Amino acid sequence: MSSRWNEQLMEDHRTTERVLAAMRKAFAEASGPSPELVRDALDYLVEYADRCHNQKEEQHLFPLIERRGIPRHGGPLAVMLQEHESAKRLIAKLGSAGRMFVAGDRSSLAELGRVFEEYAALLQDHYWKENDILYPAALRVLTPEDEAAIVAGFAAQEALSGPDTRARYYALAERIANTGQVEDLSFGLEREVLAAILNTMPVEISFVDANDTVRYFSHENQAKIFPRLRSAIGTPVQNCHPEKSLHMVEQILREFKAGTRNVSEFWLDFQGKKVHVRYFAVRRDGRYLGTLEVVQDVTEIQSLRGEKRLLD
Question: What pLDDT score does 188 carry?
Fold first, then answer.
């Protein structure tokens, strides 16, 4: 575990995002999440993501950066605190619906899923703002003594929830994330291994869910044909395309959803490369889950002639 306060908080964010991803996967299944998964996820989200993590920021980070000149009102701190309050309200609703579901009330599943998605979207956007805006701003104004005090404060805050709080909840998050492992032939692959495989493929992939929301793209922080920013995650895919091509994107999505088309492709000359772009409707048991975009530089592939054996 890093000794830097910002790296600790961002590791919290990554861990929570794994829990959210596992829950999203469970809600996408026809049967929905199990009561055991909901119980464990509520434990993590209520006790660690909300109470412990947010209190570390509110009690030990925010006061110091306010003291160093970042105002609490009318600036990024105000936005973060407002979103913390929004998260508290949503986690209370999530807890209420979740307890009913765990107790055996299946009729609460729809409300549970609706509130969870609202909460997950809020956290995802909130974490991006903290990682990319607030924390870098704080690093510019905090002194080494400030940073040491923040780290010590974090440890004290975690201790209020019991011994080895972070390790216990990270272990719980790992168990939850494993519940959401990809099935079929990739079952058993660790998340990091699967991510590395996707980032090693000679194609750039992006995934948009059934609600036209950007959920994933590969090769982050690597050279890409069409660069993507993390801020695109959680936003409508329509925001990622220029106005002149928007009608084409929406037509493809409509046809994918209607089941009248499964593949769409085009190719173009771009920055000295021949670029092949393909869109695939992602389905499971006939149900539309979203759209996969695959972008590939095929310049060298077009130049292939004859044969090249494996050992040549």
Answer: 67
Q: Which residue has the higher pLDDT, 286 or 296?
A: 296
Q: Give the span between the Cα atoms of 123 and 41, in whole angstroms.
A: 14
C-beta neighbour count of 297 within 10 angstroms? 17
Does pLDDT of 186 surpass 80? no
- The predicted model gives 135-160 an average pLDDT of 95
More confident residue, 96 or 179: 96
Domains of the chain are 5-179 (1.20.120.520), 184-302 (3.30.450.20)
Residue 307 is encoded by which pair of tokens? 């044969």
Nearby residues of 52 by Cβ (< 8 Å), 6 or more positions away: 157, 158, 161, 165, 169
What one-character-per-residue DSSP string does 120-156 give?
Answer: HHHHHHHHHHIIIIIHHHHHHH--HHHHHHHHHHHHH
Kind of pairing, strands 287-297 and 214-217?
unpaired
Is pTM, for the whole model, over 0.85? no
Contacts of 197-203 with CB under 8 Å at 24 or more apart are: 202/296, 203/294, 203/295, 203/296
- Tens of pLDDT along 264-290? 999 999 999 999 999 999 998 788 999
Closest CA to 78 of 88, 90, 70: 70
The answer for residues whose C-beta is within 8 angstroms of residue 1's C-beta and 6 or more apart is 8, 11, 166
Which residues contact residue 155 at a Cβ distance below 8 angstroms, ignoring those fewer than 6 apart?
A: none
